[in-house]
Amino acid sequence: MLEPPLVFLVALMLLFLLLMISLEKTSLTRKLVHILSGLLFLVSWPIFSNSPDARYFAAFVPLVNFLRLLVNGFSLVSDQGLIKSVTRQGDPKELLRGPLYYVGILILCAVVFWRNSPIGVVSLAMMCGGDGVADIIGRRYGSMKIPYNQSKSWAGSIAMLIFGFLVSIGMLYYYSFLGHVQFDWGDIVPKVAFIAFVATVVESLPITEVVDDNISVPLVTMAMAFFTLGNNF
Question: What is the pTM of this model?
Answer without folding.
Answer: 0.85
